[in-house]
Write a structure and sequence with these properties.
The protein is an alpha/beta fold. 45% of the residues lie in helices and 16% in strands. The chain has two domains: 222 residues, Rossmann fold, CATH 3.40.50.1480; 156 residues, NAD(P)-binding Rossmann-like Domain (Rossmann fold). The protein is built from 17 helices and 15 strands. It has an eight-stranded mixed β-sheet, with helices on both faces. Strands 3-2-1-4-5-6-15 form a seven-stranded parallel β-sheet, sandwiched between helices. Strand 10, helix 12 and strand 11 form a beta-alpha-beta unit. Helix 1 packs across helix 3, helix 2 packs parallel to helix 3 and helix 2 packs parallel to helix 15. The longest helix is centred in the middle third of the chain and has 24 residues. The chain is globular. Pathway: Amino-acid biosynthesis; L-homocysteine biosynthesis; L-homocysteine from S-adenosyl-L-homocysteine: step 1/1. One of its GO terms (molecular function) is adenosylhomocysteinase activity.
């Protein structure tokens, strides 16, 4: 077994079976892995990742290994780690894994430091914690870092802030911003897996309920569409007038959180910001209201504020804590305010992560070749990578699309042609 900190090496074979099951639904990443095994675009490079340690992530790490990289991974969320997957990676696939389900925050950060002890050339981050520690506590490693990838909206926001302050010391590619990530992972993956987590945690019937969704980005859109499809009445809260108008014209209710707080049966946050649901909102919520977060960090629901209002807290189901308030109302917080789709369910379906992780793998290979021409800052994934992933996904489903004729290409490329 590699140098790792995992819960139980004996879970490795069970993890291998689950990783293989996910791999069946990831034909694009599998094709890239086969290509990498021949081309070896990452030969001699060390890659440190901070990601959700799930079966889908395991198949990405296997792909990076096939390209020649030495890989270490730490968990990006203490509640999302699948211990059998971590064991399989460490015991059967030769990845250094620093992840155990349910660790405290001190261990969480110790694990990130352990992954960085690899002295990486490339970093793959999920939320910017790894990049943040590199720039605040592990500055000695910065000269050796060629570049990185970030796959979350929250992480990209942090990176842009670092770049504006001239604090970012190497190029980072915003994999989150590719169409094959945002349009599919965020919208379809988050939409389905978040509701899956809520239903697993509570066994509630969403039909007929009022579901309040904070944020109408790609994640919020997917949540709203799927909640409506299950028969819920959907209210959207937003700070962006364009997104709010989009929600309104799609037929969703649009209100402030102050207005919606008294009406909602289920609240889902997907904003990337803190205190989106706070004590003032808790004060008017219905008895039995369910609070769930689908944003990356556990700051969107003010958990401390909720605890301060409670006279008692009971764990009523494995991922559901019931907060009893002085007036007798009970509010149910899921997964301690952490990502409900990964803590109470299994995260996005493998078929969706196939595209996101194909973007990651191809971007790592591109960084390995192109890093010398990239200045420190936030960069976009080359359009050809995005298009290639989409083409490979279509091919895997036996779907064909039209191709421009020569006349059509000439028409689109010429300004001389009139109407």
């Amino acid at each position: 077994m590699t140098d790792s900190d995992i819960a139980d090496p004996g879970l490795a074979q069970a993890g291998v079976r689950r990783i293989d099951w996910a791999d069946r639904a990831m034909p694009v990443l599998r094709a890239i892995r086969e290509r990498f095994a021949v081309e070896r675009p990452l030969d001699g490079l060390r890659i440190a990742a901070c990601m959700h340690v799930t079966t889908e992530t395991a198949n990405l790490l296997r792909t990076l290994q096939a390209g020649g990289a030495q890989v270490a991974v730490a968990a990006s969320n203490p509640l999302s780690t699948q211990d059998d997957t971590a064991a399989a990676l460490a015991v059967s696939y030769g990845v250094s894994v620093f992840a155990r389900a349910g660790v405290d925050m001190d261990t969480y950060y110790r694990h990130i430091h352990a992954a960085l002890d690899l002295a990486p050339h490339i970093v793959v981050d999920d939320g910017c914690d790894l990049v943040n520690i590199l720039h605040t506590e592990r500055l000695d490693l910065l000269p050796g870092v060629l570049g990185g990838c970030e796959e979350t909206t929250t992480g990209v926001l942090r990176l842009h802030q670092m770049a504006r302050e001239d604090a970012l010391r190497f190029p980072v590619v915003a994999v989150n911003d590719t169409a094959t990530k945002r349009l599919f992972d965020n919208r379809y993956g988050t939409g389905q897996s978040t509701l899956d987590g809520i239903v697993r945690a509570t066994n509630t019937l969403l039909a007929g309920k009022t579901v309040v969704i904070a944020g109408f980005g790609y994640c919020g859109r997917g949540l709203a569409e799927r909640a409506r499809g299950l028969g819920a009445r959907v209210i959207v809260t937003e700070i962006d007038p364009v997104k709010a108008l989009d929600a309104l014209l799609q037929g969703f209710g649009v209100q402030t959180m102050e207005e919606a707080a008294a009406q909602g049966d289920v609240f889902i946050t997907a904003t990337g910001n803190r205190d989106v649901v706070h004590a003032g909102h808790f004060a008017v919520m219905k008895d039995g209201a369910i609070l769930a977060n689908s944003g990356h960090f556990d700051v969107e629901v003010d958990v401390r504020g909720l605890a301060g209002l409670a006279v008692d807290v009971q764990r009523v189901r494995p991922h559901a804590d019931e907060y009893l308030l002085e007036d007798g109302r009970r509010l149910v917080l899921l997964c301690e305010g952490r990502l409900v789709n990964l803590a109470a369910a299994e995260g996005h379906p493998a078929a969706v992560m196939d595209m996101s992780f194909a973007d990651q793998a191809l971007t790592c290979a591109w960084l390995a070749a192109a890093h010398t021409g990239l200045a420190p800052g936030v960069h976009q994934v080359p359009e050809r990578i995005d298009a290639e992933v989409a083409r490979l996904k279509l091919a895997s489903t036996a779907v064909e699309i039209d191709v421009l004729t020569t006349d059509q290409e000439d028409y689109l490329s010429s300004w001389r042609s009139g109407s």
